[in-house]
Amino acid sequence: MSGGRVITLQIDGRDCGAREEQTILEVARENGIYIPTLCHLNGLHPVGGCRICLVEIAGAPRPLPACVTHPVEGMQVTTDNPELRRQRRLILELMLAEGNHICAVCVVNGHCELQELALQLGVDHLEVPALYPSREVDASHPRFGLDRNRCVLCTRCVRVCGEIEGAHTWDVMGRGLQAMVISDLNQPWGEAESCTGCGKCVQVCPTGALFEKGKSAGEMVKRHLHLPLLTAMRREEEAGE
Amino acid sequence: MPPAASASSGPADTDQAATPNIPQCTPSNTPKHDASDKRWRPVEAAMRRNGYRPGGLIEALHAVQRSYGYIDDASMRALGATMQLPLSKIYGVVTFYHFFHLKPKGRHTCVVCLGTACYIKGADRLLQAISREQQMQPGETSADGRLSLLTARCVGSCGQAPAVVIDDLVQGQAEGSAINRQLARLNGREEERPAATATKGPPAAGEART
Amino acid sequence: MTPEELQRIAAEELQARQHARHRIGVCTASGCLSCGSREVLTAIKQEAADKPEMNLRVEGVGCMGLCSRGPLVWVQTNPPPTETSTAASADASPTASAPNLPDASPDDSADITTDASSDRPTGASARAESALLYKQLTPDDAPTLIATLAAAPASPTAAAAPPATTAEQTSAQDSTQTSAQAPATGDHPLAQKICDPAMPFFKRQVKVVLDQFENIDPERLESYLAADGYLALLDCLHHRRPPEIIDEITRSGLRGRGGGGYPTGLKWSTVAKASAFVPQAGQGHAGSGRQSAGEAERPDGPRKYVICNADEGDPGAFMDRSVLESAPHRVLEGMAIAAYAVGADFGYIYVRAEYPLAVERLRKAIGQAEKQGLLGRNIGGSDFNFQVEIRLGAGAFVCGEETALLASIEGRRGQPRPRPPYPAEHGLWGCPTLINNVETFANVAAIINRGADWFASLGTDKSKGTKVFALAGKVANTGLIEVPMGISLTEIVNEMGGGTPDEAGGAIKAVQTGGPSGGCIPAAHFNLPVDYESLQAEGSIMGSGGMIIMDDTAAMVDVARFFMEFCVEESCGKCTPCRVGTKQVLLLLEKIGRGEGRPADLTQLEELCHLLQQTSLCGLGQSAANPVLSTLRFFRREYVELLAGEEEA
Ligand SMILES: Cc1cc2nc3c(=O)[nH]c(=O)nc-3n(C[C@H](O)[C@H](O)[C@H](O)COP(=O)(O)O)c2cc1C
Ligand code: SF4
Ligand code: SF4
Ligand code: SF4
Ligand code: FES
Ligand code: FES
Ligand code: FES
User: Fold this and answer.
1) Residue C407 contacts residue C227 (beta carbons within 8 Å)
2) C155 and C271 housed in the same domain
3) Does residue C228 lie within any of the structural domains?
4) Mutate to test the interface with A, among C277, C565, C574 (most CBs of A within 10 A)
5) Are C249 and C199 in contact, with CB atoms under 8 Å apart?
6) How far is the CA of C153 from the centre of ligand 6 (A)?
7) Which ligand minimizes its atom distance to the CA of A97?
């Protein structure tokens, strides 16, 4: 799918060149235009689930997620305005209200993508009531832990494990508010036969839901910048086979 | 029409998780789910029909539930091994769809429709009445495995709302006390019933309420 | 099967019907089955077997619409088999054979009789010419019923058209019949159980999709052939090129009946233009998915698919179920024509597992059609191949959404994905895929047979044709009706539906259309014409055709809460606004319902509703707010009255 047609579009009034198969998010980033994201991660298949990256496109009846929308010749994109900011803020509030987030005692406090977004969008209190779900913590793995109270169902862990590591230990069970990430047949992570212990899921998790054991509050910093490289290498290997 | 509740596959296969160190499960080390088990044959056939490709997963799950009444861990492992599907993916699919059950259902089922037409005609009060009398919450199976109280979103008899389905038979214009009486009768009669639903369940443990 | 063979079988079937002295049809669709029509059918069959000299022909037939009065049974007495028995001879004009009876074929009702349709055996000539419709029969009534026939003289005095076939508003003729019928039924032993064929419930209907259901035995192919079955398919295969078919559908103005109302012809031409594609392996999965499409014996290579969406999820709607249970072949024929037109050779029907009877009848129908060469390879002697398979849903409303439906057929969690790309270009396993609703497909054969102009003459300017609705809730006549688009809600609810049921005489307050994605229309707006645009303008949608009538006992905040609870349960959980937002809206509605709401809560409610509409990924989330917004629009007072601290308001 490389070497598609070249297109020009406008993002925030600026003319940008793009290839057909790129996403609006990629084009924006190439041009130094920032669009907030959460479920998207370079190197993984985008799913368009979190809806944080919504942008306005002239003529479209509703905003569209930049991470999965492809540019079209002459498209006019707006990445930031009061309405978009209001929507993103509300979505983030919904996300925070859905789980149980107590940043002060969280391993990723200060290095959390969710927290970062909240700061950026000015979410300092919740206008919707918190749902206070009772969710399980899985501490059965010798090196890692999963605290579902901090999970935002971005499915990055599911995708990195299936697409990059090839183990597919994780998936999502149930639906709606009951949905949650599980390993193998919803068994303790430590007993999941398919887990190779590579720790990629831990590194890509945007929040403190997946963490390395033995870290105390604020100590866990995630590293996932190497992912696109891994994906590229994998593709090359597959092509060479 | 909900598949036969079967007490068939005993608890033996539900504690699979206790033997976690089998690296790759193949049909041969999940003794219950292979060609020697007659009930597995339709499952195998469903997979074969779809060329053992992932696209056949839901068809295969329907076949499992038809054969066993529910979908246990051993079945999921056998499907995963045969179709080369990750376990978590299968589990994710099974739990996404309300039609699939991880646990055996009661030998009798009472499904109260909570679709719009039935709701307008008081299905919520009907459900409460049944739930109170049977001392069960919707979705529960009685401890003796005799009755499951379930709900549905429209069973297609909206013209007869509110509708209740007892062991595959739709009862239109249902009314709480009549349904409760019928459930009581059903319990009392259980032994002599050549029930269409409860095929091979062990004989009911006493306690007839008539 | 060649067209000649088809005509021959159809003629034989029609002749066999005419040869019987009396024909009896017992409804065997789910509605009636659930109140015992199977037993009634058995009892009547038994009676008939005991009295062979009476020459009775007893058939199980499809849904006649008045499901709430089931089991429904019609009885028809044939004129003595003399000169009129030229059953299906193509030259006998159907109307001529029964001058004093309203002919039921809709081509007359539209006052446009195209040449193409009149020189075909439309089946109308053999249609019940004098029939009585009985309601709520029990097996015990069977002997009485047969006895009335034995006693009755041969002359069809109680002449009345079979109620369910009366497709038009030829009122002049109707009145004569009712009066003719009234005296005849006076001393009838089953008089209490005879339905009045002149009731608006029947009279107002115009049947295209439901046409001849009362004459079709859902389990016999011959029976469908006698109702012009597969004529359109063979006509297409032998005489029309795909672009001509698409043009016909486009000109007919048919729009999707699954809810969205997307122009069907446009969708077909998009799929037709897309180039076929080699099915991709299951995405992101390294398993055995080398060639993941369908069956082992099918060739690899580029392909397109046709999918019939029969996942009728709107609780309280049962149109599609009835169509599948009554005339499964009509849907199959529509799919085959579509496949030929867009260049597909494989099809799936995605049916709810909650519809076991529909599934069983579809299975049977597919088997019959394959055996007769109407499906499978070289259909009708042409070089067109089309294979159809059934896929069962498993209890997820969201799987009616087309991309979720695709995921489900591919064996995955039924979660929608962002569109574009649309399934028409990138569908099942990446191949161009045509997805249409059951009712949409069921319209196709009639359009081919009777022409686009005829179809376009029904309905309104922008919404052509007819629509099937399922009436339910607080109305006297619940059941299935098919009406021309543009008919007013008053006509449907008050006239056809017969207003409030006799027992509890509360006034009708509103009608809910479109289920969890639709809205409530207050009684004051009942002069609204029913078409896609008008309903949308009122904040509701046409939806798939569920119509729930509510009387003044319905509390609108509670109705909104009911639908929101449904959406919370059915949200797939993929996107944040729908997964969490629906729950937050539900909490607010519950709070208001308990009388604890504050004015600020109404503001927040509206804000969350708009967020759902604007930012959700799929149609479920985007329309989940409709029931709330529409009740807020028309019944805001009920919300405000429930608020606790009204200082600011
Ligand atoms: C949540 C949701 C549920 C739907 N359910 C159905 C359904 O049950 N049946 C149906 O035909 N279409 C349903 N649709 C519409 C389909 O996505 C699709 O538009 C339709 O099947 C297209 O067929 P048509 O053009 O013939 O209407 C649903 C859409 C959404 C968003
Ligand atoms: S995951 Fe992020 S937002 Fe949640 S508690 Fe931890 S630091 Fe705070
Ligand atoms: S565990 Fe982390 S990576 Fe996985 S879904 Fe939850 S938040 Fe996303
Ligand atoms: S709107 Fe609801 S059903 Fe649709 S994708 Fe989002 S969560 Fe799933
Ligand atoms: S980042 Fe685009 S939807 Fe999540
Ligand atoms: S709503 Fe209960 S049967 Fe349809
Ligand atoms: S089911 Fe018998 S009339 Fe509808």
Assistant:
1) no
2) no
3) no
4) C574
5) no
6) 43
7) 2
pLDDT at C165: 40
Q: Supply the pLDDT for residue C644.
A: 79
pLDDT value, residue B145 = 86
Whether the CB of A207 sits within 6 Å of ligand 3: yes
Domain-ending residue, one of C535, C554, C573: C554
Residues with Cβ < 8 Å from C262, sequence gap 6 or more?
Answer: C255, C256
The reply to whether ligand 3 has any atom less than 6 angstroms from the CB of A53 is no
Ligand 1 geometric centre to CA of C379 (Å): 29
Full-model pTM: 0.87
Q: What is the CATH number of the domain that holds C608?
A: 1.20.1440.230
Cα→Cα distances A203→A42, A209, C361, Å: 13, 11, 53
Q: If you count them, how many residues does chain A have?
A: 241
Q: What spacing in Å lies between the alpha carbon of A188 and ligand 7's midpoint?
A: 51
Q: Are C201 and C64 in contact (CB under 8 A)?
A: no
Give the residue numbers in A contacting C (CB under 8 Å), as ranges.
45, 47-51, 54, 62-65, 68-70, 87, 90-91, 94-95, 97-98, 127-129, 131, 152-153, 159, 162-163, 166, 168, 172, 174-179
Domains in chain A (CATH in brackets) are: 6-80 (3.10.20.740), 87-219 (3.30.70.20)
Does C147 score more than 70 pLDDT?
Answer: yes
Asked if C434 and C344 count as a contact pair (C-beta separation under 8 A), the reply is yes
For the ranges A203-212, C280-289, C361-370, the lowest mean pLDDT is seen at: C280-289
Closest in C283, C396, C615 to A54, CB measured:
C615
Instruction: Please state the rounded mean pLDDT for residues A127-138.
Output: 94
Residue of B nearest to C476 (CA): B159
Choose which residue among C306, C314, C409, C437 to substitute to test ligand 1 binding: the one with the highest number of ligand atoms within 8 A of its C-beta: C437
Which of C408, C580, C618 should we substitute to test contact with A (largest number of A Cβ atoms within 10 Å)? C580
What average pLDDT does range C53-73 have in this prediction? Answer: 91
The ligand minimizing its distance to the Cα of A26 is: 5
The domain containing residue C105 runs over which residues?
Answer: 3-223
Looking at the structure, do residues C530 and C568 belong to the same domain, yes or no? Answer: no
Cβ(B110)–Cβ(B164) below 8 Å: yes
Q: Which of C115-119, C200-204, C235-239 has the highest mean pLDDT?
A: C235-239
Q: Last residue of a domain, which of C223, C255, C270?
A: C223
How many C-beta atoms lie closer than 10 Å to residue C138's C-beta? 13
For ligand 4, the distance from its centroid to the CA atom of residue C571, given in whole angstroms, is: 5
For residue B78, give how far its alpha carbon lies from the nearest alpha carbon of chain C (Å): 15
Nearest by CB to residue C409, choosing from B55, B61, B153, is B55
Tens of pLDDT along C491-548?
Answer: 999 999 998 886 666 899 999 999 999 999 999 999 999 999 999 999 899 888 999 9
pLDDT at A237: 66
Total domains in the fold of chain C: 4
B20 with A170: Cβ contact below 8 A = no
Q: How far A54 CA lies from chain C's nearest CA (Å)?
A: 8
Residue A146, H or E segment: strand A144-147
- C499 conformational bin, left if phi > 0, alpha if psi -120 to 50, beta if neither: left
User: Is the CB of residue B86 less than 8 Å from the CB of residue A193?
Assistant: no
Residues in contact with B47: Cβ distance below 8 Å, sequence separation at least 6, in sequence order: B56, B59, B60, B79, B82, B83
Q: Does C412 touch chain B (CB under 8 A)?
A: yes
**According to the per-residue pLDDT averaged within each range, which of C117-131, C165-179, C356-370 is highest?**
C356-370
Fold of B108-186: Glutaredoxin (3.40.30)
